Amino acid sequence: MTTELPDDPRTYWNEEAGPVWVANQQMLDRVMTPVLESIVDLAALSPGEHVLDLGCGSGSLTLAAAERIGDAVAVGVDVSEPLVEHARQRSQDKDNVRFVLGDAEEEELPASDVALSRFGVMFFRDSVRAFTNIKKALTAEGRCVFACWQGGERNPWMTWPMAAIRDLLPPEVLAAAPGDDDVPSPFRFADQDRLVAVLRAAGFSDVGVDSVEKPLTFSGSEEVILDFIQELGPLSSLLDTLDDSVRPEALDRVTSRLRELRTGNDLTLPGAWWLASAR
After folding, report:
1. For residue 66, what are the contacts with CB-CB under 8 A and spacing of at least 6?
2. Residue 70 included in any domain
3. Fewer beta carbons below 10 Å: N end or C end of the chain?
4. For 244, phi and psi rounded to 5 degrees?
């Protein structure tokens, strides 16, 4: 299963992914609550520390950080104009929050004590170049704390739709294993050693990577959850690989599997991510 992104990330995040993420912001925030909490806990932010949120999306992590730093400023950076605009709307009553439309890989970043990210670091075109640029923005004692996904096999919350329709998929779709190549994708840093090597090549030291395994929960009706995974998960791209004659069966299988996995109004499945820190 390939989860690589198109060659033009700005177009993808502005025209395709951005509007979908805005529409699903509330569900995303609920599902990703354990991830956000793990980042904030490890970062141990203090009043007076200026924060940089990389690939901030709709701003949830930026806003959570701003609550802990007093009068210091939390700045969120993202390449997606729809997401940045949505984040600005959410933060209109916050004096210590700013959202910037920009590319953390290429552009000068504001000086910060702490750089954070919730699943934004896997999508740089050149990871070493991006982290080198991030390190330049950090103060002498600054630190970087972020989450990135472990492999798909450890994240059944993300891969269960594929398991339900695996035998219907074209061979070329099954041939590409996520995380095998150093390309922008959710599983880019599934290999912990690759992640550590990138951080060290960018000039970071005191690198630590911890495994976090916690359940992630989708709440809502069957229709709400199906709509979400078709819009935001890998299911939409998988369905695009199928002939029209096969798609109804694929959707029936996914729906049946969802009914088996749900408990009440919740779909709760294991999730696993790396929680990385570096100075």
Report:
1. 51, 73, 74, 91, 94, 96, 97
2. yes
3. C
4. -55, -30
Taking only the tens of pLDDT, the chain with its 279 residues reads 334 455 567 788 888 889 999 999 999 999 999 999 999 999 999 999 999 999 999 999 999 999 999 999 999 999 999 999 999 999 999 999 999 999 999 999 999 999 999 999 999 999 999 999 999 999 999 999 999 999 999 999 999 999 999 999 888 777 655 545 678 889 999 999 999 999 999 999 999 999 999 999 999 999 999 999 988 877 878 888 898 999 999 999 999 999 999 999 999 999 999 999 999
Tell me the C-alpha distance between 186 and 177, whole Å.
12
Q: How far apart are CA 34 and CA 67, in angstroms?
A: 17
* Residue with the two structure tokens 């104009």: 81
Provide the CATH number for the domain around residue 25.
Answer: 3.40.50.150
Q: Is residue 143 part of a domain?
A: yes
Q: Does a structural domain hold residue 160?
A: no
Domain extent for 135: 9-155+184-218+272-278
For residue 210, the cross-strand partners are 275
Which residues pair with residue 215 across a beta bridge?
Answer: 270
How many domains does the structure of the chain reveal? 1
